[in-house]
Amino acid sequence: MRDMDVFEAIKGRRSIRSFAPRPVEEEKLHKILEACRWAPSAVNRQPWELIVVKDRDLLRKLAELAPYGRFIAEAPLAIAVVTNPSSRWHIIDGSLLTQNLMLAAHALGLGTCWIGTMDRERAKEILGIPKDKHLLTVIPVGYPAEAGSSWRKPLKDFVYLNRYGAPYFKG
């Protein structure tokens, strides 16, 4: 398997909501965690902690708390991204880490999906996360059982030159 070019990973990553019943190899998981470790953060504070969830019962419980993430239950694992609100930029920093996580997983042939809506307080209780921490997201990780699809606006629709609304691209 060849290494994936970063632009290929960015353009090819899709949200995957159906997973094959195949475990994720520890070597791949460690590469993903290493990609998380190297995410940028404000003043290099690294205000994050991760919980790798493999327990089937916990995955089912988390899925029940995510109205648009019921598929967490079928993923072989999920990674909870916990940030420290004492850092002013913890949500941005945690989001940068999560993007690294999702791109690394895709480059390794795995699928992920950002879970934006869930009962975070209940999920924190289930995962034993202290009250003073923030549960940013829970990302299911596994081998895709589907091919995701996507579309993007043309650059001319959102890139401007010097001032808002001034076209950067002509035509």
Describe it:
There is one protein chain. By secondary structure, the protein is an alpha+beta fold. It has a single domain (6-146), classed as NADH Oxidase (3-Layer(aba) Sandwich). The protein has helices at residues 6-12, 26-37, 56-64, 90-107, 120-127, and strands at 48-53, 77-83, 111-112, 134-142. The protein has a four-stranded antiparallel β-sheet with strand order 1-2-4-3, with helices on both faces. α1 (6-12) packs across α4 (90-107) and α2 packs antiparallel against α4. It is globular.
Describe the secondary-structure layout.
Layout: H1 6-12, H2 26-37, E1 48-53, H3 56-64, E2 77-83, H4 90-107, E3 111-112, H5 120-127, E4 134-142
Antiparallel strand pairs: 1-2, 2-4, 3-4
Short recap of the structure:
This protein has five helices and four strands; from the N terminus they run ααβαβαβαβ.
Share of helical residues? 25-40%
Going across the biggest sheet, name each strand in turn: 1-2-4-3
Number of strands: 4
What is the distance, rounded to the nearest whole angstrom, between the alpha carbons of the first and last residues? Answer: 40 Å
Q: Treating each run of at least 4 consecutive H or I residues as one helix, how many helices?
A: 5
Beta-strand fraction estimate: 5-15%
